[in-house]
Write a structure and sequence with these properties.
3 domains; 12-stranded mixed sheet; 3-stranded antiparallel sheet; 23% helix; 27% strand
Amino acid sequence: MSDSMPSDCSAKIRILHSACVWSMFLLLLVAVPLAEAQQELRFGVLGLFHPRELQLEPVDGQVLSVVAKGAAAASALVLNGEPDHRQLLFRAEGERVVVGSRSAASWTATARNGGAVSFRLTVPGRFHRVYSARLTIEAHNGELVAVAVMDRETAVASIVASEMDETAPIEALKAQAVATRSFLAAGQRHLDFDFCDTTHCQFLKSPPALMSRVSSAVQATRGLVLEYRGKPLAAMYSSRCGGHTRSLREVGMESGEGYPYFPVSCAWCLKHPFTWRSRIGNSGQALRPGDERQRITGARQWGWSAIPGSDFAATEDISGWRLEGHSLGHGVGMCQHGAIGMAATGASFSEILSFYYPNTTLFRIAVFAGS
């Protein structure tokens, strides 16, 4: 949902206890039925730009087969990097997608065998990103909707690469991988695709190199998710918690029968305090620190850098509000800086996860041999 370290005795006891409990769970990992473990995920990509045009080109010597809906495979447009077959420009016209002189309800781009392929998708003059996926492009109300369909583990690696620096300790990268995979395994959040590529769902970056530390962390935790009451947990996390994580109730959200996110004290943030300050105008209502919905509303009005975290003090004056905060993000679930700090002092990924997500267990979902 995203837009790239405990010191007292009681904290140490909690960590040691959690380590023992989670070591037992690691010996009891089982697989859920395939129906509960979606192997491919559909990501709506670059929708934040509301694109009317998108440019497609192959990368790494790949060959793309681009086919209009309803057309025969033999009529596919081929992109292979050669001068006359280097790129295609898609343009929205109402509910149709136009490529050159050809118009269709949708287009797909795949490898020649119909599988995933590496490509660069560009919003002309604004932004581009590389994906390893199958691509579908449709048009709605004069805007292009691009959906990248990719293997779940590829998606996990792409998200971890955007959420945590490559230089982070490997156990912190593993913890991030499990939290990310767990979020994806918990189920889709959109109607036309499963997830978007913004912090509403999961911030999706280009996939990391196969020999990278991020890829190694993803492979080492392959298939592992967090479970609460028999279901994968849509694990939330944030950059800095400010010293203690928050429950859903504390940030103005209700969990119902779901995971309530038990708050924990974060030693790294307590030892490494962080402060941000900003000023915003008068919104006409009281600004309540800790209310995540209000923070998001305010950030959309004044900019995300104006209210980057939910842990802040607000002082009203004649010109608006003066804010001073100590967190980055909502502070719910795993603190990423805290996870890095725990890993740096020897904690395993399972200890990190059990600390920030109390009362959850590790669970292995089914994975295809080639996924």
